[in-house]
Amino acid sequence: MGFFITFEGIEGCGKSTQLSLLKTRLEKGGRAVLGVREPGGTLLGEQVRSVLLNTTEEGIDPWAELFLYEACRAQLVAKVIRPALIEGKVVLCDRFYDSTLAYQGFGRGLDREKIAGLNTLATGGLVPDLTILVDCAEDVGLKRAWSRINAASGAKEDRFEKEDAAFHSRVREGFLEIARGASRVRVVDGSREISTVHREICDIIKGVAGL
Ligand SMILES: Nc1ncnc2c1ncn2[C@@H]1O[C@H](COP(=O)(O)OP(=O)(O)O)[C@@H](O)[C@H]1O
Ligand SMILES: [Mg+2]
After folding, report:
1. Which of 11, 59, 140, 173 could covalently link to 145 via disulfide, CB atoms 3.0 to 4.6 Å apart?
2. pLDDT in tens, 157-201
3. What pTM, to 2 d.p., does this model score?
């Protein structure tokens, strides 16, 4: 079996940046690495992703939103993540089910036990070997996310980036609470320089997985 690492945290904390740096580093070390993102990572998942990230006048019911995320996840685990792990690859996933608990549970207030049950159903019980929670204050993350959006000409903010600061603060606290309850989750201070955060993540991965 390979090794399954997920990256979690609020918008703009640096998940994608750190995932990409780690992927390059592991590949330089001769590892077979697969990087995927949620929602997405499969044809079905990318189609649902575009539905999820765009606003329509009708809006999305929170439970409908949850089921769409779980549908993406079921497809991604079955078609991509499990096969890659069986091949012995290191799988790096940009967001996974902790995000559902943080956003739909702590953020939107849906029943957290029900969410946890659906998460288990969607993943068939697959649990990350290690989860890196890149933590930073919501205003820092949102500012970074906004400058990223402004840099990409024509890009539109997505639904989560439109939520208010209190929502993102609940999500951040939710991630931290998840981390307190699960030894697989390691919290990294994402407010520091990109290279400093990267070095710490490399140290953690060496310590936990010997990679
Ligand atoms: N530690 C950091 N310090 C300053 N800027 C950062 C840091 N990490 C990421 N960024 C920048 O902030 C923006 C959001 O980073 P990104 O990795 O896309 O966040 P996420 O995937 O968590 O939403 C990007 O423009 C990225 O270059
Ligand atoms: Mg990202």
Report:
1. 11
2. 565 666 788 999 999 999 999 999 999 999 999 999 999 999 999
3. 0.94
Q: How far is CA 42 from the centre of its chain?
A: 15
Give, using CA atoms, the residue closest to atom 12 of ligand 1: 144
The closest alpha carbon to 81, from 185, 28, 2, 21, belongs to: 2
CATH of 3-209, one of 3.40.50.300, 3.30.2400.10, 3.10.560.10, 3.40.20.10: 3.40.50.300
- The domain segmentation of the chain, as residue ranges, is 3-209
Pocket of ligand 1 (CB under 6 A): 9, 11-17, 144-145, 148, 190, 193-194, 197
Nearest CA to ligand 1 atom 1: 194
